[in-house]
Amino acid sequence: ALCVADAAAMVEQARAASVPIFAAHTYLWHPKFETLAQAADEALAQGERRLLIGTLGFGTHTHEDCSTWWDYGSHDAAMVLWCFRRSGPPVQVSGGHFGDSNCLRPVFATGAAQLYFGTASQRIRCAVLSGDDLSIRFVDAERDGNPLNRMLDEFVAALDGGPVDARFDPAFAIEVVRVL
Prior knowledge:
The protein contains six helices and six strands. The protein is an alpha+beta fold. A six-stranded mixed sheet has the order 2-3-4-1-5-6, covered by helices on one side. Strand 2 and strand 3 form a beta hairpin. Helix 1 runs antiparallel to helix 6. The longest helix is centred in the first third of the chain and has 15 residues, at 31-45. The termini are close together.
């Protein structure tokens, strides 16, 4: 879905038909990202008020029918929103285009994020989390931790009646669309 109304309609149609619907942002299952997200949770729980997350995501543009905002940036937006999920939705979002790159800056009650993403000949994704006494860097390495396999295992387990991981929550997916 490329707009909030379409995303909400998909969720409602799935619920009305009693069909499970899961949003899947693979990087949320990356072990290095999980470490970063846990550190963000702990910092916010300890009252950190100046948390900053910067992401840089570049990769080959694979979907010609949509921009890099949707093709690549949605995963970076999901990572940032997941880290700030305890802060509530962003209070402000700004962004723009810079040549082949895009910038998105969501501001939350407890901090801000700066996302840059665009196209490049090689896939690169990294995130830096910083606060008063905190600095963690997540650099994606191909096949590191098998996030896709981990996500699919959770998906299959949920379809088999197991608990549904919060990272699949359609409301979270709608929030990603809202930010973009």
